[in-house]
Amino acid sequence: MVFEGDFNTGAYASWGPTVANRVPVHASGPYVVPNYRAIGRAIHSNGPTSGAFRGFGVPQAAILQETLYDELALKLGQDRLAFRKLNAMRDGAVTATGQLLEAGVGIVECLEALEAPWQEALLAAAAFNEAESGPLRQGVGVASCWYGCGKHLAAPIPRPSRSESPRWARSCCTRALRTSVKAPTRSSPRSVPTPWACRSAASD
Q1: Residues 167 and 47 sit within 8 Å (Cβ to Cβ)
Q2: Are the beta carbons of 5 and 27 closer than 8 angstroms?
Q3: Distance CA 89, CA 46 (A)
Q4: What is the spatial distance between Cα 109 and Cα 47, in angstroms, rounded to a whole number?
Q5: Who contacts 179 (Cβ-Cβ below 8 Å, separation ≥6)?
Q6: According to a count of CB atoms within 10 Å of the terminal CB, is the N or C end of the chain lower?
Q7: What DSSP designation does 115 have?
Q8: H or E element: which one contains 19?
């Protein structure tokens, strides 16, 4: 999987470097991805300062990654839920950044709990679409997401600052274990969320 994410962080770094760090770490989703390359870039512009809005770019990356998994499942002729279950992480899995998940990985159980309602929803949507002669159609979707919490002292996360070093402006997904960010205090300037421009592709 190859992921690249560029976003406009405005005239100041603010939370841009943090977002550029977190997104590549999370873009693989809660799945086993043995071949993975991800780059996040916070690009300065003459616009107003921007930053994270309770998600640090992870939801946008999840939408892109889950869309890619839908396309892969359809090309393979597999059920989309079954495809996710097949590739989901389990206890003992190693993430794309090299973190060993020894215990507590519950994504498979979550997906298994969806199997019965998933099949019911697919049948209901198919029946509706077959009976509907107008322009309306129903569809059913499924998606997974993960979000890291905690902090690892060996992989510090940069804090917002107007004097951030440019070295944080480009971050590749080559490290970072358990990472988190410190929320701005009430006295900190409020940030304005900036949309991501992302590209993703599957590679052999």
Answers
A1: no
A2: yes
A3: 42
A4: 44
A5: 21, 22, 25, 148, 150, 151, 152, 155, 157
A6: C
A7: H
A8: helix 16-26
* Bridge partners, 51 (sequence order): 193
Rounded to a whole number of angstroms, the distance between the first and last alpha carbons of the chain is 8
Distance CA 191, CA 184 (A): 9
Question: Are residues 22 and 56 in contact, defined by beta-carbon separation less than 8 angstroms?
Answer: yes
What is the length of the chain? 204
Q: pLDDT tens across 19-73, in order?
A: 888 889 899 999 999 999 999 898 999 988 886 677 888 888 999 999 999 999 9
Structure pTM? 0.70
Q: What is the dihedral sign for C-alpha 118, 101, 61, 70?
A: negative
CA distance 147 to 86: 20
Q: Contact, 174 vs 97, CB < 8 A?
A: yes
Mutual angle of helices 16-26 and 58-76, in 10-degree steps: 20
Q: Which two tokens stand for residue 171?
A: 């971050």
Instruction: Locate 192 and state its tokens.
Output: 């304005």
For Cα atoms 36, 42, 45, give the angle at the middle one, nearest 5 degrees. Answer: 150
Burial degree of 35 (CB within 10 A; 0-12, 13-18, 19+) = exposed
Measure the CA–CA gap between 131 and 153, rounded to whole angstroms.
59
